[in-house]
Amino acid sequence: MAAAAEDSKKSSDVEERLKPFYERAALAEEGNLDVAIESLLNVEKQMRLAGDVAGTKNAVIEIVKLCYEARAWKTLNDQIILLSKRRGQLKQAVTAMVQQAMQYIDETPDIEARIELIKTLNTVSAGKIYVEIERARLIKKLAKIKEEQGLIAEAADLMQEVAVETFGAMAKTEKIAFILEQVRLCLDRQDYVRAQILSRKISPRVFDADTSKEKKKPKEGDNIVEEAPADIPSLLELKRIYYELMIRYYSHSNDYLEICRSYKSIYEIPSVKDDPSQWIPLLRKICWYLVLSPYDPMQSSLLNSTLEDKNLSEIPNFRVLLKKLITMEVIQWTALWETYKDEFENEKNMLGGSLCDKAAEDLRQRIIEHNILVVSKYYSRITLKRLAELLCLSLQEAEKHLSEMVVSKSLVAKIDRPMGIVCFQVAKDSNDVLNSWAMNLEKLLDLVEKSCHQIHKETMVHKAALKV
Questions:
Q1: d(C-alpha 301, C-alpha 297), whole Å
Q2: Handedness of CA 452, 457, 461, 463 (dihedral sign)
Q3: How far apart are CA 463 and CA 89, in angstroms?
Q4: Tens of pLDDT along 285-344?
């Protein structure tokens, strides 16, 4: 009997609380919008002062719905501002109101109404940590509209206002997608310094995380991470977008080695490796940018690892090209260019676009540097005239390229200009000279001792033969 009475009481309480909403529906159908809103505002006030979270949320949501159904966009904006400023307004009610109103952004009749609604919601959510994710999404929508209007600088400035890396409740993929959008807009406005700063907020290791592992259930007190929206790409798709943006950034400064590493990271994505139509153009790009990169340990390591790739057999011309670079032989530039000129021109039609404008000039520069390194391996001293003949250059050009390599510390050499002699020997300091003398003396004493031993042995053998 007591349980039945309790259920009856709860049922009557629910009916009593829902009564104003039924009245609002009837008033709205009769066209009395202002009266219906006023009725709900009174309900909202009662619920808010009573600390009823669920009732307050229902009231503000119903007010927003009422304005939307009546297509009263100005009234909707006014009510959102009014409700957010009411004394002692509950956080849950503001969150529910913003989330509900965000569903109507795409339903606005024109672009002006859309922008006005976004700005209203942005004003309400500014400075409130409990709606920081909603504010980030609103900023992203507004920036997209600005970009469509051709206002790239304004869109970039809007996006840079939000630091999503500090949002604990935002999904990891949504954070990465937001930062990548910031980087893209900076690149579009040619703000390369800020693009680099923003790109460093993303660690490349985050793309190697194992997504197949089951998510751990959050412990009590942990922040609950929201699910990413359906339009956010997967982690592997974001990895590709990230490295494509990095290629755009490094192309600005013609950093060939970093461009090559970015292409290699895209090439290693499983979905790319399974599709020859995707990985063949990427492998071609990797080979070209390896050849264009100045010699250093990282370039040498990438070169050898690329040569070990079995897929390189599908493009044998590039295997031959890479083999030439690791072989200590002088490369004839004219013959090489005649062989690979068509391949070079074909890059314009391949996936990833053409090489940069000065790539052909830089390719010739890399071949000359390779040839100088080869000469330095075989010669300790050589005349400048002979060096120019081996490089197929004039004396002035040979001296210029040799000097540039010495300045960049790729090579150790000295030029005796009056004599016209190039010396590739490394200058030794006093300690090295003393050490070499000590080693030579030690070798000399060893030879003397061995010679004495052999002489003594021969003498003993000769004496034994005479006695017999």
A1: 6
A2: positive
A3: 120
A4: 888 888 888 888 888 888 888 888 888 888 888 888 888 888 888 888 888 888 888 888
